[in-house]
Batch of 3 targets.
Target 1
Amino acid sequence: MSRKFVGVFLAILFIDLAVADNKTCAQSAVKDTLEITIKQAEEQFLKNNLALLAGQFSIDHAKAEIITASLFNNPEFAIENILYNPETKKFFDMSYDGGQYQASLSQLFLTAGKRNKNIKLAKIGAKQAEYEFFDLLRTLKYTLRTDFYKIYYQEQSAKVYTEEINSLSKTLTAFEQQYQKGNIAQNELLRIQSQLYALQAELNELKDNIDDVQSEFRLLIRASTKSYVSPKIELDLEGKDVLEQVPYKLLLDSAYANRSDLKLARSAVAYSNLNLKLQQAMAVPDITVSLTYDKFGNTVRNYNGLGISLPIPLFNRNQGAIKQAKIAIESSKTGLQQQQDELESELDNSFQAAFRLEKLYNSFDPKFKTNFNHLIEEVSKNYQKRNISLLEFLDFYDAYKTNTLQLNSLQLNRINSLEQLNFITGTQIFNK
């Protein structure tokens, strides 16, 4: 009874999985296939990505600060009139004999080059906004390119599962007929069914991963959610020693010259140094020049006066802000050094990893995959002819799947290692 129950349960499970797979295929069929190359993907990314568009607005905002810093202070005008004249008994008396009013015009003049220093700080701020934008571009572009290749090689792995599932399904159908005739034992049939269900579960998990990467990739290029991205690979690294053609020093020099986050760290040091000069200049008093007219309220009628005023830097000489600016200089220098150390460490680690992957991949026989594919076809035929045992048949299938998936993973990791070097150096040296 227990064996019959297991058989019925597995048969029901197989039907459920087949129905679920059909539903998935039906849903996938609704999507429009978007065949795209890496170059086309980058063009759409640069044109449509909302994060990049928002970054452009940040640059424009920072450049507007330069205009603000360039403007002079507005002059101030003040006028005062008598509210009530008790002698003439008039409100707002502006008559020649009895009226009284006074007016003044003043202008603040910044000293010690404060205006020019503020302009320079604003220009550095605009440059920093540009560096932040290009660093965002570098990061998103790296994500775009790695997602592109990940989708392609995961799809190749999905094809391996599909081929095995289709092959095992045919074998299962044939063996079910033989089982009904009593030619094979039930345990052989159940073992093939179990292998088939395991492959279907692994394929479903892989498709979930593909869908996640597809979603992220579509978001980066703002493609329709109804489209299914099908990458077209034009890159050929077969048998090529790519890293040997590029000296390590060139990679390091490129990173120092092109990394936007490193430029941002350098600009932070320049900003801090200039800010210190500005804070020291803030200790120098600014001058206010004023012109005054007083009709009748001074010792001289129709009084005209020229005035100059400035604060006396007796207590507040901007000591706290100057000290903070000095601390900021040391902090920015430390941040720059840390950024450089991290860059060199990342580059060395990534270069060594990429070099190992290149040597490993190039050590594989190019005919290995073709020969292995032919071998698995012969294994399937020999098992149906009962020339090999069930365990040998399933072992060959596991070896085929494992080796093919590992080869796809190795190719993906090799390409990603080169993309990582592009990311670290800030240039498109590899995989152009």
Note: The CA atoms of residues 179 and 186 lie 7 Å apart.
Target 2
Amino acid sequence: MLRSGLISIFIAMMALVHSPAKADEALVNFKMLNLETALELAQATLKSCQDDSFQVAVSVVDRFGNLQVTLRDRFAGPHTTETARRKAWTAVSFRTDTVALSDLTQVGKPQSGVRFIPGALMAGGGVPVEAAGSIVAGVGVSGAPGGELDDKCARDGIEAIADKLF
């Protein structure tokens, strides 16, 4: 009887030891920017464009493409807020910056069909934000004179918060 009691206790202890592992396998952990850091990213990105005298809108989306922050400079065009959001969403969704996507999805290229996905915008200025090998956000810029300049502002903004992306 003592032996069967000890065996029961051992089995119960083993079940407790192995249960968390199964729970860990069933759940996913991830990182994303908190609101304060997303706002700091948007502000640093806007400042980069302002330093070059560009009137732009900046959007930051979370790793799932949900809007966290949008800032629009006073004279940025009315289209820039939605354009910036779509660029950020596209960068996160496709896990690639939109300058590269603009080239990869040109008419006649095998990936050209993705231009028809609702909400996707294959214009330069959307950049995924990475930390520890994972995408944690996306930033999109619209309003500079060209997608490459929007992209530069986005990358400057990311660089400004790089010390927080460990």
Note: Strands lie at 57-62, 67-72, 126-131, 134-142.
Target 3
Amino acid sequence: MKICITSQGENLDSQVDPRFGRCQYFIVIDTETLGFEAIQNPNIDSMGGVGVQSGQLIANKSVKAVLTGNVGPNAFQTLQTARLDVITGVSGTIKEVIEKYNRGELKPTQCPSVNSKFGIPGTK
């Protein structure tokens, strides 16, 4: 099964990026084989609509779930519309998160974890 994890780097030893829409990379990984693709986020410096744009990008990658530190309301709605599980509150390395996911320790969230301005430089 393929999932997406937001990442601060482009390999499995990288730390999870706490932001969804403005993360550094999206790691799309097969949880069984650990084969992965690192996608540099093209939306990181966009002015607006980042959550929706990032959500659409990942929805087109045929993943079942998105794992991240936080997700805002627009991204959450986009991912939910695409019928993807959204799991927030994850941290550690990408490898650690995959192991927790495979053990069933991470459960989907039912709502956004931050407001729509989270992750924009200069805002809280």
Note: The beta strands are 2-7, 25-30, 36-40, 65-67, 85-87.
